[in-house]
Amino acid sequence: MTRPTRAHRRPAALLPLVVGVLLVVVGAAPAQASGYRYWSFWRGADAGWTYQQQGPSVAVPADGAVDGWRYAVSPDGGQDAAKPRTGGSFADVCATTPAQEGRKRVAVVLDFGTAEDAGAAGAAVPGPRTACASVAPRATSAEVLAAVAPPLRYDTNGLLCAIAGYPRTGCADQVGAAGAAGPDGATSSAGHGGPDIGLIAGGALVAVLAGGAVWQARRRRTP
């Protein structure tokens, strides 16, 4: 069996260096934001709150359903978002709203969060409230909300920013992000999900090192 020459071994010897450089660059990348300040959307059930996978303009609650909303600093969507702190029984919330033919009733639970969630010390935060909407059978959760908690505020992309006028400004602001921040320590969530410059630079550096290793190996094999 032919023993590998030093030139054949060199690319393998450079591999730990390449991996090490990549780990250093990735480790030096800026930390991700701690969360966003927004209204999360939930569906009530006997077992508790379940994160609503559909947006309010798409979700069509059934007669007797419970829609829940919570304003808080939470991750960018998903099961880890802050849930409403109070439960909502359809029987209790809609007890004084009589059923009507050709209409459906949907209970709504609103949790406006805390002053810390609002991002301003001593902020006037509305107390939690419930309401029973009597709406058309095909009404979406957005229409249910508009019937019992106006005014609603949306951004240009259709993202729900405010319920019952709260908060007065801002829309899914990023909290704890590196870089410039607003008066309450938040920056806009616009641009979220863009490429990480550190990762791009790391990938380019790894490509350069790997290419250099191959070039050296070929050069040493040339008679």
Q: Give the end-to-end Cα distance, rounded to a whole number of Å.
A: 21 Å
Low-confidence stretches: 1-9, 17-33, 179-210
Cα-atom radius of gyration:
27 Å
Biggest sheet descriptor: 7 strands, mixed
Give an account of the 3D structure.
The protein has 223 residues and is of the alpha+beta class. It has 5 helices and 9 strands, in the order H-E-E-E-H-E-H-E-H-E-E-E-E-H. It has helices at 6-27, 90-93, 115-118, 141-148, 197-221; strands at 35-45, 48-51, 66-74, 104-111, 129-135, 153-154, 160-162, 173-175, 186-187. A hairpin with a 5-residue loop joins strand 6 and strand 7 (160-162). Helix 1 (6-27) packs antiparallel against helix 5.
What's the gist of this structure?
It is built from 5 helices and 9 strands, in the order αβββαβαβαββββα.
Write the layout of secondary structure elements.
Blueprint: H1 6-27, E1 35-45, E2 48-51, E3 66-74, H2 90-93, E4 104-111, H3 115-118, E5 129-135, H4 141-148, E6 153-154, E7 160-162, E8 173-175, E9 186-187, H5 197-221
Parallel strand pairs: 3-4
Antiparallel strand pairs: 1-2, 1-3, 1-8, 4-5, 6-7, 8-9
Helix pairs in contact: 1-5
